[in-house]
Amino acid sequence: MSASPRVAVVGTGVIGAMTAWRLARRGAEVLAFDTYAPGHDRGASAGESRIFRTVYKEGAEYVPLLRRSARLWRELERDTGSALLTLCGGLTIGPPDDPDVVAVRACAEDCGLDHEVIDAAEAATRFPQHRLDPDEIAVFDPAAGVLRPEPAVQAALRAAETAGARLVSYQRVDDVTETASGWRVSTAEARHDVDHVVFAPGPWARRLAPLRKLPVRARLITACWFAARDVAAHRTDRLPIAIRRHRTAGFSCFPSLDGVSIKIVPHHLGWPELGDPDDLPRTADVEFVRGASSAAERLLPGVVPHPIRIGTYVEGFTPDDHALVGPVPGCSNATVLTGFSGHGFKLAPVFGELAAELVLTGTTSHDIDTLAPSRFA
Ligand SMILES: Cc1cc2nc3c(=O)[nH]c(=O)nc-3n(C[C@H](O)[C@H](O)[C@H](O)COP(=O)(O)OP(=O)(O)OC[C@H]3O[C@@H](n4cnc5c(N)ncnc54)[C@H](O)[C@@H]3O)c2cc1C
Hints:
Layout: E1 6-10, H1 14-25, E2 29-33, E3 50-52, H2 63-80, E4 85-86, E5 90-94, H3 99-111, E6 116-119, H4 120-126, E7 137-141, E8 145-147, H5 149-162, E9 166-168, E10 173-178, E11 183-187, E12 191-194, E13 196-199, E14 217-227, E15 241-245, E16 250-254, E17 261-266, H6 286-299, E18 309-317, E19 324-327, E20 334-338, H7 348-361
Parallel strand pairs: 1-2, 1-13, 2-9, 5-15, 13-20
Antiparallel strand pairs: 3-8, 4-8, 5-7, 6-7, 10-11, 11-12, 14-17, 14-18, 15-16, 16-17, 19-20
Flavin-adenine dinucleotide binds next to α1, β3, β14 and β18.
C-alpha cells in the first residue's frame, strides 16, 4: 500500500466519523460515504444524549479502551471547539444481587476504579430524583457522564475534513467489489477505486455483500422524554446519568439537556428486531408508552409521567452483545466495525483510532481479540 493510501469509509455514523477523523489525521486519503448526512436520526447515533461510563458492567477488558476513549473525546473537543462530554457522574441503581449491580461492583474492585456504594437512605438525600426501595443500593461512578451524539458525529467529520477527508453524503454505497489491487466502491452516481475499505454501516451491515454472513441483527430502541417538575434539580450539575434496575422495570436515565425534560431509554419493554433498518417506525405504540410511563411514575418522582417526546432509533446487535471489530473474514484490505449492541457510542473514538491503525499498519496496540469478527465464522 502507498504511503498515503486511499481508504473508503462506508457509513458516517459515530463509528465511521471517528474512523475518518483518525485516518485522515494520519495522512490517509479518505472518502467517507453515507446514505444520509452527518448527524441524521435514522440509525444508531442520534437522540440528544449518550452515556459515558468507566466502571463497565460489560467487562473489565473494556476499561483500557474507555480510558483512551475519554482522552480522545477531549482531543476532539479541543480540535473542534465543541462541548461533547459532560462528566456528571453515573449511578447504577438496583437490588444488591442484580446482575448489573454485581457486575459494576466487580469491575470497579478488579480494576481499582473510584466508586461509592450508597444505601437507599443516603441516595434519598443525595439523589432524590430517583426513588429507591429500602433494600436497593446505588453504585456511583465519578468518571461517568453524558455525551452529545449529533454534535459529536458532526465534530468528528469536521475534524476529518480539516485533515483532508472528503465526505460523500446522500449517496448509498450499493456495491463493494474486491479488485486486483484493492476495492471498487459504487454508488448510483460514481465508482471509486481505493486501496482499503472500512465498513462502518451500523445496523445495515448485512446489506453489503462482503458482510452478509456476519450475525448482525437490527433492533429498534425507543427513547422517551418526560417533563421535569423542577428542571434545575435534573440538570447535569445535580443529576448523574443512571442505569436503573428494578424488579418491575429497567432503563437508562439522562439528565436534562434541553432545559425542559429528562430522557429515559426503557430496557424492560424489549428491543424488537426489525427485518430491515429502513423499516424503523417513527413513533411508539400505546402499550410501550404505558409501560414507560408507569416506570417513570414509580421510579422518577420529579417528572410528569407522560412522555412529551418519543424518539425511535435502530442499532445492530450481535449474538453475544459485543461488537465485531477487525478484518473482514475472507477478504483482504477490508476492516469492519459493526454490531455495537447498544453500547458503542462512548467507545467510538478509540474504535476509530484502532481502525486507523489496522488500515495503516495491519495491527493495533489495543487488545480487541474478543471482538474479532472471525469468532462467528
Ligand atoms: C437509542 C440508543 C441509545 C443508546 N445509548 C447508548 C449509550 O448511552 N451509550 C453508548 O455508549 N452507546 C449507546 N448506544 C449505542 C450507540 O449509540 C451505537 O453503538 C453507535 O451509535 C453505533 O454507531 P454506528 O456508527 O455503528 O451506527 P450508525 O450510527 O447507525 O451509523 C451507520 C451509518 O452507516 C450508514 N450506512 C449504512 N449502510 C450504508 C451504505 N450502504 N452506504 C452508505 N452509508 C451507509 C448509515 O446511513 C449510518 O449513517 C445507544 C444506541 C441507541 C440506538
